[in-house]
């Protein structure tokens, strides 16, 4: 009841009329006010609505487990995290893996490698494909989050989530992509098939890197809201939507290389619309997640 | 050609003396002009005119219609270009524009205007210049908007000509200059009147130059004294003056009058709207006012003028205007006129300003005098002179004594007669007439209205045409007519309203006396006259110190003379002569500027005329030409030319004045129209008022009759009301009666009803009674039966009662018996009962107690249950809280753990690094020492044996140290790592601390890595510690360290294996090189093992083997 009374009584109508996101910030604030943060609810919220950018970092950190659900321990835990970050960074500096001139993203990569025990013998070792993925994601996160400690932790946990939680589902995504593309636009799919481009689409870029480097960060973070909150299926819809949006151009291209090349470098100006449509599409096909509470 | 010849013929025919022929030819020309649009005909006409100056041609040319104007202007422009035809062209132009053709507005665009201006700028012929200037002046009001383009030309011309007036280029005769000066003066007036701001700024700029200063002082400045400040100088601006909008609503004559308004020169000035001669001039130069008034008369006299008042002034005024001439006889009326105009002009300021006291002599004139005037004038609202003419008419009409009524048409003549009459009689008569008339006016305020409407305007119209009729030169006559009335009217004004109140009536008798003996009544007159005539001109000059100077004897003196006509003229003539002399003598500096060029011209003409008339009188010959020849030879050609030119100039002047007169006439006509309209409106007003009155009367009558009707109506109403009330009361009575009757009948009816009801009831009762009777009879029979029955029952009852009594007695008896027998048993029963009761109570209380207990226990149970619930709840909360805390702690723990993990990783990295570094170090050192090793191999083996014992004890301590170091997290791997990477060195290190640094066997042992190390280590540790304590006794930390190793080996086994294999490779090669040494080493290795014998070495060895294998396994 208290929650309801705090909310604007018009909020129901806003959504009916089509204004989304009017009351979201307020409800998110209410959610964040709970002492023990309800991660379930936060997940649902983040899946349902775009996160306000001022709370995005906090919500991500909570959802990714960087911060515990208790407000009390936030400071302490954050201190631990920071110290850990500093220690690792220090260690890397001591063993001369990184220097001040090393790009921040590589620093993050080495830190991650160190923490996961995969640190190569020398910084000049060639990068593994998973390191490339890490770098792409790190670059994207670096744009979104200012604080380097937060940044590192978010990258680390995000990558961990990809590697652990979505280990099973990520390889399934191309199939799902094909299926939904078929539902949305079978002609386009057949075109891709005839060009034999379907198997050569930039799946790595889309699903392993979660579009990092493909979409501008402002749009990307809306996609990642969903990914962080536990739904990697959104990636499929973003991919479908990209294809639908650039359908005319894709249809005009005949060779698989060209299509791949084009898709790897799509124009960024319509990315917001793409993401919005993708989220709609996702809601349409997978249904709007409801508060479990 | 034939046509031209024909034209020539026609032209010659134009001048034919036969009137009909001339008319015909004129008609033919006009027809031609209307049909032909070419310039040819016009050109021929112009040429012809220039040749012959033929009047009919001039007439045709001046009436040219629209399409030909251009040709005419072009032609005239051509002629203007040629010096010979310039003058006639100019005069033709003058003729044309004076008639104001409908195309006059085109003049401003025509090339003629610039050429005229050019001509005026460059020509040196005075006659042409004068004519041109006059034409220009005439033209200016017609094309005021052209000022914009040509303004500076105008000003230049003015500048040039004004300087001409002064510089007098040699060949020009003075007489011409007078004409020129007069025309420049007119130009000055026109320019100043039309474009004051521009003109003043031109004057400022032009005469600020030194070379022009003289001209300004001599020529322009006197001109400026004859103009007042133009209001436009205050309100207008240069641009505004040139604005065509300003000129659009002004007609030509409006412009002319505008210009005249700002003039102070009485000859030029125009005074409409109640403006009189400007007070300054009249006050400053009173004699001049008279003088000015005189000037036109002089003209008229010359031309035998007979304007209405000429007789009065002409004789007198010549005296003033022509001082050089012998004074003529003064006629008394003229003196009267002379004295009076100044008065009028003196009064003007108060009339204009509406002031109550005249500014000049406040003490002498009663303040109420001025009041009537202003009011009077305001109420009349007519041009001043207009009224005056009417007054004059009055006076003239009231002169029946001598002449009877004079027809208006004969007025001028009559006036002339009057002038020549005996002055005393005339004076008396006129005075009487005036006084009479004035008393009439004052007594009947509205009367003047009637005569004004009656013969004012006719008279006025008559008088104007009357002048030129007798006049040969109409222009001057017209001017005279317009100027002349002014003094006259003002005099009559003055006398009109004020005399009856103040001075005139009391004068009357003395005046009469004065008629007989004018000289005798001088003293009496003095007193009176001072009253009337204090604001006379003669008084003001001394006050102002101008004109007559301060040397004047008591200011009133000569006035008295003036007031007494008989002696006056001698005195006045004497006085004026004196004054004029004085003025001439002393005021050369102030008077000259006051004479306007026009006056000068006038005087000149007059002088000429006088001279001429003298000559003529002398000769008494009929014609001039004859006269000349008779006089002695032909007249000098030069003289003739001069005279002709002069005549021409005069003619031009005349034409110009005539043009002005026309403009004034136009103006007058318009004003008259306004007057008539006003009069008509007034009459209309009066008529309306009358109608209003009549209607009001009607309304009154209607009101009275309405009141009567209302009264009658109210009476009738009352009657009707009374009737109605009567009838009403009757009706009411009747109704009342009717109601009574109705009630009675109602009552009766009810009674009837009652009776009927009663009868019905009675019948019913009868029926009932009958039935009752029958019923009772039946009952009776029944009762009799029952009676018999009851009797029998009574008998039985009596019997039974008796039985009862008996039985009761028996019962009592028995009861007595019973009571006596059962008295003791009751006690027992009672006891029993009591016991029973007690028991019952006891039980009851017990039950109660039990119940209470039950309640309490139940409550307790409830309490406890609630407690329990609370506790449960609390427990739950606690659990939740615990869970919370757990989660929180877990969160923190996780963070800490991850941190710990990170630390672990970091240490691993560090270890790796260290190992790496060690590896490198060893690699370097090994190569060196391997060489040394060969030489010292044997020695080293020996030493090794010796040092082994020492090393054992050392290693124990070292190991202990290590064990204690294990507490630190980072320490345990180090010895392990050291054991692995550089175990030999550590093992050797243990020894080397005590013994020598060179230990080849240890180095070699290092090649076999941990095997040797562990053997040594275990052998050392085995003594104080339990078997296998190294791996197992390390407790948790040890386990961890182990794990770490394992992890590391797992994760980095590849790299390790690489380095190790490389190491072993090198060693192998070395071993291969040095088999001798190789062979020795096993000995050494095996040697020391048995050499330090210990009690449980075998078991230890086994264990050590186990450990070794284990460790090796782990390493592998």
TrEMBL record, chain A:
Keyword Cytoplasm: yes
Domain Rab-GAP TBC: 50-231
GO biological process terms on file: cellular response to starvation; negative regulation of cilium assembly; negative regulation of TORC1 signaling; positive regulation of protein ubiquitination; response to growth factor
Keyword Membrane: yes
GO molecular function: GTPase activator activity; small GTPase binding
Keyword annotations: Cytoplasm, Cytoplasmic vesicle, GTPase activation, Lysosome, Membrane
Alphabetical list of InterPro entries matching this protein: Rab-GAP-TBC_dom, Rab-GAP_TBC_sf, TBC1D7, TBC1D7_dom2
Pfam families: RabGAP-TBC
Entry's Gene Ontology cellular component terms: ciliary basal body; cytoplasmic vesicle; lysosomal membrane; TSC1-TSC2 complex
Subcellular location: Cytoplasm, Cytosol; Cytoplasmic vesicle; Lysosome membrane
Function, in words: Non-catalytic component of the TSC-TBC complex, a multiprotein complex that acts as a negative regulator of the canonical mTORC1 complex, an evolutionarily conserved central nutrient sensor that stimulates anabolic reactions and macromolecule biosynthesis to promote cellular biomass generation and growth. The TSC-TBC complex acts as a GTPase-activating protein (GAP) for the small GTPase RHEB, a direct activator of the protein kinase activity of mTORC1.
Subunit structure, interactors included: Component of the TSC-TBC complex (also named Rhebulator complex), composed of 2 molecules of TSC1, 2 molecules of TSC2 and 1 molecule of TBC1D7. Interacts with TSC1 (via C-terminal half of the coiled-coil domain).
Record-given protein name: TBC1 domain family member 7
Automatic annotation (TrEMBL), chain B:
Gene Ontology process terms (BP): negative regulation of cell population proliferation; negative regulation of TOR signaling; regulation of cell cycle
Keyword terms of this UniProt record: Coiled coil
InterPro entries registered for this protein in UniProt: ARM-type_fold, Hamartin
Composition-biased stretches (Basic and acidic residues): 959-972, 1070-1083, 1104-1116
Region span, Disordered: 466-526, 946-1005, 1070-1116
Stretches with biased composition (Gly residues): 976-992
GO CC terms in record: TSC1-TSC2 complex
Keyword NAD applies: no
Superkingdom to which the source organism belongs: Eukaryota
One Pfam assignment: Hamartin
Biased composition regions of type Polar residues, renumbered to the chain: 473-492
Ranges in a coiled coil: 678-772
Protein name: TSC complex subunit 1
Species for this entry: Ursus americanus (American black bear)
